[in-house]
Amino acid sequence: MESASLEISPAELHRRLQAGHDLQLIDVREPEEFDYCHLPGSQLLPLGELTRRTDEIRTEGPVVVICHHGVRSGQAAGYLRHRLGRTNVLNLRGGVAAWAEQVDAAFPTY
């Protein structure tokens, strides 16, 4: 079970984005999901491509990993932390579904 310190809530992510914090948003969903809806400024990096595209994820500064409900992004964040030793990675708790529910009611859901 991931501890809360390794996750970020949708409300906290929204607060940080509104405050202009420099965050890298990595969306690990599939291209069709990303095309349907994604957080502004996020970069698509499907989970299946993660291991060969880790050079696209910065090693300094906060990185927030995003998916539909937080499961795939949790796997990606765990890989980055435990296999690559990245300490700057946060999982968006509840994914874009929670974002739509807690932050932006107009955000598309599926």
TrEMBL record:
<dbReference type="Pfam" id="PF00581">
    <property type="entry name" value="Rhodanese"/>
</dbReference>
<feature type="domain" description="Rhodanese">
    <location>
        <begin position="19"/>
        <end position="108"/>
    </location>
</feature>
<dbReference type="InterPro" id="IPR001763">
    <property type="entry name" value="Rhodanese-like_dom"/>
</dbReference>
<dbReference type="InterPro" id="IPR050229">
    <property type="entry name" value="GlpE_sulfurtransferase"/>
</dbReference>
<dbReference type="InterPro" id="IPR036873">
    <property type="entry name" value="Rhodanese-like_dom_sf"/>
</dbReference>
<protein>
    <submittedName>
        <fullName>Rhodanese-like domain-containing protein</fullName>
    </submittedName>
</protein>
